[in-house]
Write a structure and sequence with these properties.
46 residues, 2 strands, two-stranded parallel ribbon
């Protein structure tokens, strides 16, 4: 940043909406992860 060489291309994000997420094991942690990603609009596969 001090050298004015701020490249934004490698820092671009990606949409998570309607992306699949595989969760192995629906215990306490798996359930929490599935609930959080469901609110982002991801498809949860357990």
């Amino acid at each position: 940043m001090k050298e004015d060489m701020w490249e934004k291309k490698p820092l671009t994000g990606m949409e998570l909406n309607e992306k699949p997420l595989g969760v192995i094991g629906i215990g306490n942690i798996g359930t929490i992860v599935a609930e959080k990603t469901d609110t982002l609009g991801m498809r949860v596969i357990a």
